Amino acid sequence: MATHEMGAESVEVVVIGNVGIDTNVYFYDGEPDFERESNFTENLDYIGQAGGYASLGYARLGRRTAFIGHVGDDASGAHIRSTLTEAGIDLRGLAIDPTGTARSINLMYGDGRRKNFYDGKGHMTLSPDLDLCAALFRGARLAHFNLPNWGRKLLPLARAAGVTIACDLQDVVSLCDGYRDDFIDHADIVFFSAANSGDPVPLLRELMANGRCRVAVAGMGAEGCAVATAEGIRRFAAVSGPTPVIDTNGAGDALAVGFLEAFVLRGEPLETAIRCGQVAARHTCGLRANSCDLITAEIMARALLGRD
């Protein structure tokens, strides 16, 4: 396995999540005809899933990043290792999933809708190296958790290390599903997508009543986002961008990365951090089946000044 020579003391952010190969299926006619056996499409592969987008996102912003996750001992896993290593990401926490590299199929509709079919391989039963993970957390400032089942085992380690814990709950309908409880209970900052929950205000209020959570962010796509703090709930309109919205995969991950990089790692005010997250998300929406050209600090700075 390829490893990165970065010392544990130099890591700023540790990303915990699943990474894999996504295949985006673009319909030439906008809609598939399920009455026919075959449809003509454009099918594009790239490195995706929340762990892939988040770790590459921090690295593109110039942050010293470690990734804890799994890939298979296969060609897809080798490609992911090589790409993340080239991006400068510390891969000492990248272990082997004996069932193979995770895959995701995204059916992409002409109006921006998507349907995701996710194969997480062995993430429900894998067990990370706890000693190694504890070493990665020491000296870091931020632990960005996505939702692999094995990730819950690392939450107490991150808490013991004193890092800020951020958890992305993904597309939430209800907070009472059991699976997310550990992540909610340990999180200082929570993100979720309101794509399947409608008005996010009740969920935001519930998260803030949890006790530990100090900021909760609901991504609302074209409607912007809603942010809850101890002072209340605020809504922020979506930002525009220099390119059309062509692919929303990874936008929620970019919102979280942009916000956390500014709020936690740079100490920016909430409003500035939200703006950074929204700019990062909007940039991602202009990328088609691509997680390697995420926003950089230079592009972010120009966008914040209105030069893009």
Describe this structure in words.
With 308 residues, this protein is of the alpha/beta class. It has a single domain, classed as 3-Layer(aba) Sandwich (UDP-N-acetylmuramoyl-L-alanine:D-glutamate ligase), CATH 3.40.1190.20. The protein is 30% helix and 26% strand. The protein has helices at 49-60, 75-86, 130-137, 155-161, 181-186, 201-208, 251-265, 270-285, 297-304; strands at residues 13-16, 20-27, 41-48, 65-71, 90-96, 102-108, 114-119, 142-145, 164-171, 189-193, 215-219, 225-229, 232-236. The strands form 2 sheets. It has a 9-stranded mixed β-sheet, sandwiched between helices. Strand 6 and strand 7 (114-119) form a beta hairpin. The longest helix is centred in the last third of the chain and has 16 residues, at 270-285. It is globular, with a radius of gyration of 18 Å.
Question: What secondary-structure arrangement, pairings included, does this model have?
Answer:
Elements: E1 13-16, E2 20-27, E3 41-48, H1 49-60, E4 65-71, H2 75-86, E5 90-96, E6 102-108, E7 114-119, H3 130-137, E8 142-145, H4 155-161, E9 164-171, H5 181-186, E10 189-193, H6 201-208, E11 215-219, E12 225-229, E13 232-236, H7 251-265, H8 270-285, H9 297-304
Parallel strand pairs: 1-4, 1-8, 2-6, 4-5, 8-9, 9-10, 10-11
Antiparallel strand pairs: 2-3, 6-7, 11-12, 12-13
Helix pairs in contact: 1-7, 7-8
